[in-house]
Amino acid sequence: MEHVILVDKQDNELGTMEKMEAHQRGLLHRAFSILIFNSKGEMLIQQRAESKYHSGGLWTNACCSHPRPGETIVQAGKRKLLQEMGFVCDLSFSHKFMYKVELENELTEYEWDYVLIGNYDEAPIINPEEAQSWKYQSLDSIKADVHYNPDAYTTWFKLILVQPELMAFCQ
């Protein structure tokens, strides 16, 4: 059973809770989203496996999850990147933001999402329990597709794409 770190609106730790219960109750907790870029400046995105407990089949950033109690955000990011995409690379903290969204199955994402950025040029070896497809794509192309097909992307990924911190990184 996986646990998440519950936090307040200032991101102070309050304790832990089983992951599904936290999402069912809509409690604020820590999460992370990893953005991977290749040397051409293209972003690695994945299509979530249909079997995921929410947002199945939607396109999103390379990897996202929750840190475990006692684990740093970067440690958690490397663990999940290996598990989901089959590789590890250096990750740097970019920024964090809070968001809340109602999802299918009566679940709520209410998260302090830490955005981590890394570089990788190879093809990932995706875990089919986590992702069903992947591609490297230019940021402009991703943003255009999000504009025309917003329902094909996860909520948190759409929020990340419009944040000024991402634009500062990509310039």
Quick summary:
The chain has 171 residues and is an alpha+beta fold. Helix content is 26%, strand content 37%.
Average per-residue pLDDT, rounded, comes to 93
Overall shape: it is globular
Largest sheet: 7 strands, mixed
Number of distinct helices: 5
SSE string? EEHEEEEHEEEHHH
Structure description:
By secondary structure, this protein is an alpha+beta fold. It has a single domain, classed as Nucleoside Triphosphate Pyrophosphohydrolase (Alpha-Beta Complex), CATH 3.90.79. It contains 5 helices and 9 strands, in the order ββαββββαβββααα. The strands form 2 sheets. Strands 3, 4, 5, 6, 7, 8 and 9 form a 7-stranded mixed β-sheet that branches. A two-stranded antiparallel sheet has the order 1-2. A hairpin with a 5-residue loop joins strand 3 (29-37) and strand 4. The longest helix has 13 residues, at 73-85. The model has no long low-confidence stretch (mean pLDDT 93).
How do the helices and strands line up, and which of them pair or pack?
Elements: E1 3-7, E2 13-18, H1 19-25, E3 29-37, E4 43-48, E5 59-61, E6 63-65, H2 73-85, E7 91-102, E8 108-119, E9 131-137, H3 139-148, H4 155-161, H5 164-170
Parallel strand pairs: 3-8
Antiparallel strand pairs: 1-2, 3-4, 3-6, 4-5, 4-9, 7-8
